[in-house]
Fold:
Amino acid sequence: MRVRIRTFLPVMAAIVAGSALLTACNDDSGSSSDGTASPSPTVSAPAPSGTSVAGTPSALASTAGADSGSSGSPVTVNKSFTDDVMGEKATVLKYVSGYQPSAASKTKYSALADEQVVLVEVKVTASSKYYDSFGANSFYLTGMPNGIDQASTTILDDEVKAAGYPPLPDAETGKTTTGWVVFTPGKGTKKLVLRYKRLAAKTSSGTSISAKNFDIPLN
Structure:
């Protein structure tokens, strides 16, 4: 999540009056303020991008080429959260925990031998209160054995796209995008919880916005 200047802000004029500039403070350790949202189910979810009437992502994976990865069946989640302070919104649509990277990827990235690949489909809407970009780098898997939230990765983006799981594009200010986010937790990780991190920020007038986490269990 990148937060930049916005020239007008009717709803939060007190925070960003005078073209306020927020500076976000990165914290990938999971030590930010631990506010947790209660996920609320949505009415419906769109099918994964790249899925046609004639095939699902799993079917597409089997025809993407001899060196493509393969996957298990997507599991429906349909849970959402809204960050009312920053104006971010996201719905977790589905996840796949059984994705198998291609032989080429396993050779190139030796760490995959000890990791599983988890794909999460999300629909995100970036803030319209600030000039903003909301995408895969705002999401983590929390509850890792080492206590460190695991960031998403892009090393398999080309492969999963070929398999029918197009990666999540960044949503710019006020826009909405849908796509898949890739994680590589250790093979011993059983409980999967997706975390969105609102980073701490400060306006040019000195007003502080605290960090907060929003967690959605996947399984």
Observations:
- Confidence is low (pLDDT under 50) at residues 1-21, 23-66.
- The chain has four helices and 14 strands.
